[in-house]
Specification:
single chain, 152 residues, alpha/beta, Rossmann fold, 2 domains, globular, binds S-adenosylmethionine
């Protein structure tokens, strides 16, 4: 938020957890162009208006939530993106690509293959701009990083 607030006129932070948002608010008190909201599991706050957002950044969220919620959020993101807007997000890959649940309180992960990721974008009405796969040496899991825009 701090970095983004220097690049853009207004920045909005959202999370499903009110505790997280309270803490973010507290840590960002000196940022005068930031607003924070709590969002529902598969949608964005109503205050985030259609076609109003130039850049959406979602970092390490979608591996934690059922596939239908990820799709719901990406559809909402598609609605709020401006015509030249871009969404950047990451997905866990190469593990749990057939799972849609896990054990509570653990770092369980719902994974996406590259073709599942492309399918997700298509269903959300988003156009892939760039996809990069990153693998660390310590695990068989990888991260897919995606940049996408509104389908024209
Ligand atoms: C691994 S943390 C990443 C937090 C933050 N993006 C960061 O980089 O520090 C995952 C976050 O996703 C949030 N989260 C889980 N489900 C969500 C949902 N459906 N919508 C929005 N946030 C969600 C959690 O509350 C948690 O703060």
């Amino acid at each position: 938020m701090r970095w983004l607030s220097k690049q853009y006129d207004q920045v909005i932070g959202t999370d499903i957890s009110s505790h997280v948002i309270d803490k973010a608010h507290e840590l960002c008190q000196e940022i005068d162009n930031a607003t924070f909201y709590v969002n529902e599991a598969d949608s964005l706050p109503a205050e985030v208006l259609p076609s109003s957002i130039d850049m959406v950044y979602v970092f390490t969220v979608f591996q934690h939530i059922p596939r239908e919620y990820t799709l719901g959020l990406l559809r909402k993101i598609q609605e709020v993106l401006s015509d030249n807007g871009v969404v950047v997000f990451n997905l866990v890959s190469c593990i749990n690509e057939n799972k849609n649940d896990g054990i509570a309180e653990t770092e369980w992960a719902i994974g996406y293959s590259e073709s599942q990721a492309q399918d997700l974008l298509a269903k959300a009405g988003l156009q892939l701009q760039k996809m990069t796969k990153w693998s660390g040496p310590e695990s068989s899991a990888s991260w897919l990083w995606l940049a996408a825009s509104k389908k024209v």
